Each structure stands twice: as C-alpha cells, then as structure tokens.
Amino acid sequence: MGDFINIHPTELKFPFELRKQSSCSVQLANKTGKYIAFKVKTTNPKKYCVRPNCGIVLPGSTCNVTVTMQAQKEAPSEQCRDKFLIQSVVAPDGATSKDITPEMFNKEDGRFMDEFKLRVIYIPANPPSPVPEESEEGTPPRASVHENGKQNSSFEDVSRSLEETKQKSSEAWSMISKLTDEKSSALQQNQRLHQELELMRKEISRSRTSGFSLSFVLLIGLLGVVIGYLVRRG
After folding, report:
1. How far apart, in whole angstroms, are the C-alpha atoms of residue 217 and residue 223?
2. Which of 86, 95, 111, 193 has its CA 20 to 30 A from that of 212?
3. Among 160, 5, 8, which Cα is nearest to 88's?
4. To the nearest 10°, the Cα dihedral for 146, 148, 154, 155?
5. pLDDT, tens only, 43-89
6. What is the pTM of this model?
7. Which of 95, 31, 27 is nearest to 65 (CA)?
8. In this predicted model, what pLDDT tens digit does every residue of 85-143 receive, in sequence order?
9. What are the C-alpha distances in Å from 142 to residues 90, 132, 155?
C-alpha cells in the first residue's frame, strides 16, 4: 500500500453480464493525520464511470469510490487488460474537493505522490454453486454422492427406456413381418380357390353339354325303333 492511504480491495471485480451495467466499490482509508487528496484514472474512460473520481480523505477517515462499467454488447474474447490508477497527495489542512486542481498531481513540481494500480477482473454474474469440500481425506462428500447417484439413476433410466423402445420396435417389426406373410399366404390361397372353382365350373359345364347330347341321341333312337315297329305292324 501507499504511504498515505490504504486501498481495499486491490482488484476491481465486476460481475459480467451482457447488456447490463455492473458496479464495484473501492474503499480509501487515510492512515495519516493529514488531509489527503486523491484522483482516480483509468485506461478506458469511455467504458467506466467513477464517482467520485477525485476528493479529499480526512485524517483517519475513509472514502468509498464506486466504479460502474457500462453495459457491454459483446463478451470479452480474452482476459481484461483495463487498469485503474489511484493517485494521492498531501493537501492543505481544511481543503475540500473544490480545492483540488490538476497541478496538485503534477510530479514535475517535486511534489511527493503515491500511486497505486488496480487491475480489472470479470466474474460470472451467476456463478455455479460451490462444490462441498471432502469431509475426510479420500472420502467424497455426501452431497456429491447423492448428486452422482441421481445422475447414475437418470442415466440408467434413459438406458432402460432406450432398451424398451428397441425391444418394442423389434416386436413391432416382427408383427408387421408376420402379418405381411399371412396376407401373402391368404392371397395365394384365394387365388388357388378361384382357380379350382373355375375348373369345377368348366367341368360342370362340359358334363351338362355331354349329358344333353347323349340323351338327345337316345331319344331319337328310341323314336326310330317305335316308328319302325309301327310301320312293320301296319
């Protein structure tokens, strides 16, 4: 820390979330018996808003500085390189923020000035819940065992469901194949029945035709015999 003020925290951690502002605070504590003037600078002034960006810390007192990061449209592709610089110098007794001038932080005047750099760190806006530590060496925590049991149970349920689905699908395909075979067999039997029926019809038709001709011949012959008998008798 510097000779004039203590700074806490020493890093600016911003909860990062797209299209939302994020803020964090820095506490400056005057550890001297003098009035201390401070000024806050940043490498990216368009991205951050600092309130107050300068001021007076009374002897033995503290001052809170709020840094607000503007809403970002894109997630950072690499680690943030933004930095802040807090400068502090001894101010005249009774000085106020209105008495602060740029010349007070000019090193060329031989004035002694403390400088402290703070780096910027982005942290997830909704961090995952921490994993409970092991209760004994080599023994996993009960919560982890419970969660693993749930995961294993879910995996087994999914596997069982997939097996049942495969089995039902196989049974369905077997039933479809069986019905297809039965349908084909029924069609073949139907065709054979039609063929046999047609043959029977033809046989019956031929039988009827042959029977009619034979009867007719017999009738003619019988008539011829009767007529001849009558003629001979007469």
Report:
1. 10
2. 193
3. 5
4. -160
5. 999 999 999 999 999 999 999 999 999 999 998 878 899 999 999 99
6. 0.54
7. 27
8. 999 999 999 999 999 999 999 887 778 899 999 999 999 877 666 655 554 555 555 55
9. 57, 9, 20
Residue 96: both structure tokens together: 């106020």
| DSSP codes joined into one string, the chain | --SSEEEE-SEEEEEE-TT--EEEEEEEEE-SSSEEEEEEEES-TTTEEEESSEEEE-TT-EEEEEEEEPP-SS--SS----EEEEEEEEE-TT--GGG--GGGG-GGGT---EEEEEEEEEEESSPPPPPPPPSBTTB--HHHHHHHHHHHHHHHHHHHHHHHHHHHHHHHHHHHHHHHHHHHHHHHHHHHHHHHHHHHHHHHHHHHHHHHHHHHHHHHHHHHHHHHHHHHH-
Residue 51 φ/ψ, nearest 5 degrees? -135, 120
Among 22, 28, 73, which residue's Cα sits nearest to residue 49?
22
Closest CA to 90 of 51, 50, 58: 58
Candidates 121, 145, 122; CA nearest to 134 is: 145
**Interacting residues of 22 by C-beta distance below 8 A, sequence separation 6+:** 14, 15, 16, 68, 69, 125
Give the residue carrying structure tokens 């995996």.
155
Answer yes or no: are the C-beta atoms of 141 and 134 closer than 8 Å: yes
Q: Is the dihedral of CA 105, 107, 108, 110 positive or negative?
A: positive
